[in-house]
Write a structure and sequence with these properties.
Length: about 450
């Protein structure tokens, strides 16, 4: 995210002398853990369908349960933060995630998976609300832009790694001789032989326990927000929802997260259903590449924003995402393998690469999507003159798009086929494209040309 994506916060720390690199490291570690828990669902989809004999609609209820928790928790978490401060909220959020992970680990059933993912999602939503202002305080306002970019890179890196954790367990659990490996030997006693992928949630439960212990012993800085940065009461949110601009950008965040999760959650199943690629190796690898290219694209997008108006960057990346998506859905299998990840990159930058084969195009979707979140968020906050804290909470509530769009794709997929269901993404990307046309921010992003012009004046 760029430095306009979150409103500023001040602190009791004096300017440089008492900054806390350790606290910055803790926040970055929290981003890493959030990403691991959030973006593992996509690689698991084919195994979940097979293990529980589910339709596409029923399996889509799993990401629905996770992301609907973001919609439910984002605004209340902001209010809770005003009362209880960051440390108790973060400990409580990780405790929720632990209960969710342990519940599914010990009772790996479809109904418990729904409850488990809702609890984990609620915890992750509260963490997202808490750690952004904490990052500004601990690292210093003058370093917030850099630290925010670093956090997004770490977030993307964790999403890149999580499918490999899944692949490691499904390829080793049950294999003769692998029980001699300490972790595999332990998991073979905890995980049903027919459900080796459940080991991922045992790892998550253990990781969350470690985070709770670390948070319990760490001393937190005091974060003091200006009045316009506070989350605000329900009355403030109601008033903002009457603003047409607020609603339009809320729909923008809804469309973006719906696109991101709509691609990530269905890549592996699409490659299996239409091109017979192994979901435990090829499918998981392409989901990993999707998130990896989003990270690369985000870096490239930040560079482009120093030279181009953010609306032009958004338009270019969205057009690229539409091209990559089309090639992924209707091209041969090897093309889809590249283009789906590049849609994520395009959600971050323009890189219209046309390969020869579906293995290529799906990763490219991720590349194309990488700049969409920070650009939409910054355009939104720069389009209103006050109550940025409440507006941020409303925008984060738009993350429910990650619940509803994959569910809609699954429902249509059951009725007409997964390829036809994925055509919904043309609607979400079309709306994002429109933002680049109608957006009129009060403050435009500063480019190098604008900076030089200002210095000359």
């Amino acid at each position: 995210m760029n430095d306009n994506a979150s409103p500023p916060a001040s602190s009791h720390f004096p300017p440089a002398s008492r900054r806390s690199p350790g606290m910055v490291a803790l926040v970055l570690l929290t981003f890493f853990v959030i990403s691991l828990l959030t973006n593992i669902i996509g690689p698991l989809v084919p195994d979940i369908i097979k293990s529980f004999e589910l339709s596409l609609t029923l399996v889509a209820l799993l990401p629905f349960a996770f992301f609907i928790a973001y919609g439910v928790m984002s605004v209340p978490a902001g209010m809770l933060l005003e009362r209880c401060r960051e440390k108790p909220v973060m400990v409580g959020a990780f405790a929720l995630a632990f209960v969710g992970a342990l519940l599914f680990s010990t009772l790996p059933r479809y109904p418990t998976a729904i409850v488990s993912l809702f609890l984990i999602g609620a915890g992750m939503a509260a963490l997202q609300v808490a750690i952004n202002p904490l990052l500004r305080v601990a690292g210093g306002e003058e370093h917030y832009a850099f630290n925010s970019v670093l956090a997004q890179i770490i977030f993307g890196g964790a999403s890149f790694l999580s499918p490999f954790i899944y692949t490691y367990f499904v390829r080793n659990l049950g294999r003769p001789g692998s029980e001699t490996k300490p972790l595999i030997g332990l998991m073979s006693k905890l995980v049903p032989p027919a459900l080796p992928w459940v080991a991922v949630y045992w790892i998550f439960a253990a990781l969350v326990v470690v985070m709770v212990v670390v948070l319990a012993v760490v001393r937190f800085p005091v974060v003091v927000r200006k009045e316009e940065e506070r989350a605000g009461a329900w009355a403030a949110h109601k008033e903002l929802f009457k603003n047409r601009t607020v609603l339009l950008y809320f729909l923008g965040i809804f469309a973006y997260v719906g696109t991101e999760q709509g691609v990530a959650n269905w890549i592996s199943q699409f490659l299996l259903a239409y091109h017979k690629y192994d979901p435990q190796t090829v499918g998981a690898g392409k989901v990993s590449l999707f998130w990896g290219l989003m990270t690369v694209g985000g870096i490239l997008g930040l560079i482009l924003l120093k030279f181009l108006d953010s609306r032009k960057v958004l338009l270019g990346f969205t057009v690229a995402a539409l091209v990559f998506l089309t090639l992924a859905l209707f091209g041969p299998g090897s093309l889809a393998l590249v283009m789906f990840p590049l849609v994520g990159f395009a959600a971050s930058v323009m890189w219209p690469v046309i390969g020869s084969l579906a293995l290529v195009m799906f990763p490219l979707v991720g590349f194309a999507a990488s700049v969409m979140w920070p650009v939409i968020f910054s355009l939104a906050l720069n389009s209103v003159s006050s109550r940025h804290g409440s507006f941020s909470g409303i925008l984060c509530t738009g993350i429910v798009g990650g619940a509803l769009v994959p569910l809609l794709i699954g429902r249509l997929g059951d009725a007409f086929g997964l390829r036809q269901g994925l055509l919904v993404l043309y609607l979400t990307l079309g709306y994002i494209l429109s933002i680049g046309i109608w957006a009129r921010p009060l403050i435009a992003n500063e480019t190098l040309a604008m900076k030089k012009k200002g210095e000359a004046a």
